[in-house]
Amino acid sequence: MTPRLTAEHLRGIYPALPTPVRADDEVDTDAARALVRHVLASGVAGVVPVGGTGEYGALAREQRVRMVAACAEAAAGRLPVIPGVLDPGYHDALAAGRAFADAGADALMVLTPYYTTPTQQGIRDYFLRYADASPRPLLIYEIPYRTRIAIAPEVLHELSRHPNIIGMKACNTDLYHFLKVVAGVDAGFAVLSGEDTLFPVQMAAGARGGIVVTATVLPRTWQRLYALLRDRRLDDALALHRELIPLLDLAFAETNPGPLKSVLDLIGIPSPQLLAPLRVAAPELQQRLRAELQARLAIEAGLALS
Q1: Which class for 278: exposed (0-12), middle (13-18), buried (19 or more C-beta within 10 A)?
Q2: Is 169 a catalytic residue?
Q3: What is the pLDDT of residues 201-232, one digit of tens each?
Q4: Residue 123: is its pLDDT beyond 70?
Q5: CA 178 to chain centre
Q6: Of 257, 254, 248, whose CA–CA distance to 284 is shortest?
Q7: DSSP 8-class letter at 81
Q8: Number of separate helices (H) and strands (E) present in the chain
Q9: How far is CA 295 from the centre of its chain?
């Protein structure tokens, strides 16, 4: 495990990793370690396994822990491993976080409690209670188009002052909400973009980096995009992001990570298997995504490490 994470570590690109699985629905730990080594070689800031891209809800509990352990083993303290915790209730979520900590996680990305549709006070109390009990620092994971509830900016402002809550993955596509969040969070709290499609806009508005799905296959490209934004070269960053739009449209044309998994062989890690209820991407989509990714990988090969 790396030294205890703080908001200062939450900068740059954190690929959201898919979970390689075999036909028996068990984690392919060799492929998982290969994924981590692949992105590590490109200088990313850390990795985020078993989130939504990692099919958290479809994995058996013990398989989630196996994936986290495999990632931590491959990272070997060279970059932080921040698994998602996507359970809807406090006790299961805390048990998962503790198991991930034992498996080598450096921090935990905890999802807004869902299905029960809690009040804002309930959300506040949930995260404060979790942060008090958690063995690792927390990132809040807000994704209202999946959970059906957004966290009010003023609640996030209060949560940002808890010493064990160091940041958030922001997937709220309401940019005014994003601006209000960034305007009031504590200096010891890092907002990370959670949307590949909005990354340059959210970075320009105050995000310190991003948890990025397509960075798994294009880590150097995303590192380059981050470096341009860090250096305030917004026009160049927007131009590069526009080049990625065709690939992003295809990568998210069906439920993530179906399309992404269909092309992992292009980075030398064939792992197309999905977990129920997801199905493999349509053949035409796979073909188009494969062609687009091959073209981007040719460009990626010429990029220097940032």
Answers
A1: middle
A2: yes
A3: 999 999 999 999 999 999 999 999 999 999 99
A4: yes
A5: 17
A6: 254
A7: B
A8: 12, 7
A9: 24
Check whether 37 has a pLDDT greater than 90.
yes
Please tell me which residue in 126, 169, 226, 261 is annotated as part of the active site. Answer: 169
Closest CA to 103 of 63, 45, 140, 145: 63
Tell me, yes or no, if 126 is annotated catalytic: no
47: phi > 0 → left, psi -120 to 50 → alpha, else beta; which?
beta
Q: Which of 130, 141, 226, 261 is catalytic?
A: 141
Query: Domain segments of the chain: what residues?
Result: 7-231
Give φ, ψ of 110 to 5 degrees.
-100, 125
Contacts of 192 (CB under 8 A, 6+ apart): 10, 14, 139, 167, 168, 169, 170, 207, 208, 209, 210, 211
Average per-residue pLDDT for the chain: 96
> In the structure, what pLDDT confidence band is assigned to residue 306 with cuts at 50, 70 and 90?
low
Query: What does the block give as tokens for 75?
Result: 């990272």
Altogether, the residues listed in the chain come to a count of 306
CATH of 7-231, one of 3.90.650.10, 3.40.225.10, 3.90.79.10, 3.20.20.70: 3.20.20.70
Find how far residue 99's CA is from the centre of its chain.
19
pTM of the model: 0.96
pLDDT at 244 over 80: yes
Distances (CA, A) of 94 to 59, 82, 150, 212, 250: 17, 15, 21, 25, 35
Report the share of the chain in percent with pLDDT over 90.
97
The predicted pLDDT at position 253 comes to 97
